[in-house]
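Objective 1b: paired records.
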Amino acid sequence: MRAFIFPGQGSQAIGMGHALNAASPAARAVFQEVDEALGQHLSKLMFEGPADELILTANAQPAIMANAIATLRVLEKEGGIRLADKADYVAGHSLGEYTALCAAGAFDLATTARLLRLRGEVMQAAVPVGVGAMAALLGADLATAREIADAAAEGEVCTVANDNDPSQVVISGAKAAIDRAIAIAKDYGAKRAIALPVSAPFHCPMMQPAADAMAEALREARIDAPLVPVFANVTASPVSDPDTIRQKLVEQVTGMVRWRESVLAMSEAGVDCFVEFGGKVLAPMVKRTAPDVDAISVISMEDIEALAKSL
């Protein structure tokens, strides 16, 4: 069994998608449709920068999605492959869940782009810059990360945001609390604690204004049943019902990304091959979580051609 998976924020880079755009009409069509949906030349920003604009949450989120969907569309159009025939599940990390839903036909591409643009804007606006922060705890499991977060909170928000793999957990909350967590992390057994270069404290209760805004937008958005089940970040379980998908996407804004548990659940369901589209962040996490499965990253035309031959 096979799962197609899609990366989250942090996987953006200047030049992303440029070679695919030059090589494939299928990729060009994706970038053009996203540009038109947003009324912005996002593809030019992806291909040429500047980096300080691409990294802005409202640009990075639709850009990462567009790059991953372009990679998938090249495989489908030029490899003559249907996702429903080759994937048993799809999943994505944070914003990647929207990409997964687009890949599986629950959202159309233009809707996905507009939702992610809005998601980036409202997440950025929810907390003033400098008030919140995030940190990666390396060499810490979920239980250890929760201990560190609880000890550092001191009445402020400090909670687990991403349970990525058995050795990497991300915490989020008020800046002072995150600073305290970084200072005490080694005392609780973490190898390292690193402040992340983010502009807001994602996936924590401070994001409630963004969750409210996304609830309103998702209420109006058309969601079809996906071609294959989508593993939801907040439950680490498969969903197919459009109303449930809508609800879980709202919960995801303030909730923990249960990526490690999602990988384990897919593995236990029989998935023995994970294919990451448009990034090389998730495949290593998958291997650290489930060492016996295959996990590959598909980014270039060469990667796509090799995957097409193996499917």
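Objective 1b, second protein:
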Amino acid sequence: MKYSIPQTLERIAKIINCDYKGDAYFPVLGMNEIHVVEPGDIVFVDHPKYYNKALESKATIILINKEVECPEGKALLISDDPFRDFNTLTVHFNPFISSNAMISESATIGANTLIQPNVFVGNNVVIGSDCIIHPNVCLYDNTVIGNNVVIHSGSVLGGDAFYYKNRPEKFDKLISGGNVVVGDNVDIGALCTIDKGVTASTTIGEGTKLDNQVHIGHDTIIGKRCLMASQVGISGCVIIEDFVTIWGQVGVKSGITIAKGTEIYAQSGLGHSTGENKKYFGSPAIEARARFREMAYINKLPEIIDKLDKLK
């Protein structure tokens, strides 16, 4: 999430009431999660396991809960609770604004686009030309839809990320400040849910087709011309490259990369990155040929046991 006006380190420290290390006028251009940070961004870290990863990332401002040496060319914000303060900054720079109309006055809708009854179009939504948005679709604030897109009834684009910190007294939610971006020539089936990014965009690439009841988690990036059948569930922060096919009821772990041309057979559970143009099956999923060999061996077990019994 980039700020509309560049900030300074001192200004950010005042907003969250914390100490800082670095030049008071050190530039702060935005804030992002660790996997999408760029120079000028704030990243937060609150666990020793990830200190080095954050300090060595592309982010130039680290919101951290420990006094550490400041890396050269960077700045630190020292907080007793970075998670809380990251939320404070999200709310400050991207506050929730209630809508008072089914189609917001700030929305932009392209030529020849058809909006069916009971569609909600939030603030600053952009919809391209020649689209069809069927009844009861919900497009949350800042969603961007390309040209020639079809979205079927009941789908929700831009719901909050499923991202919580487990505190002793409760689950504490990380506030989502990102959005959803859908490319040209995308079809989205009925009752799909596509969560917005925590600080960046959840992206559906050009020509991709989603069946009914598909869920896409926050900050996932889907490439061009992918196919996903019904009841696929993609976790957050997954990279799905071009021409990937995922069949029904597949579950995908967060933070992995599904390589170009991968095919995942139905009812598989994928917990690791894949190789290009390979096929996977099973739970946990492995290459399909290896899984089918395993299944063939298992099917022979009764015959083997029967032969062994006869030898006794």
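The CA atoms of residues 134 and 270 lie 32 Å apart. The radius of gyration is 23 Å.
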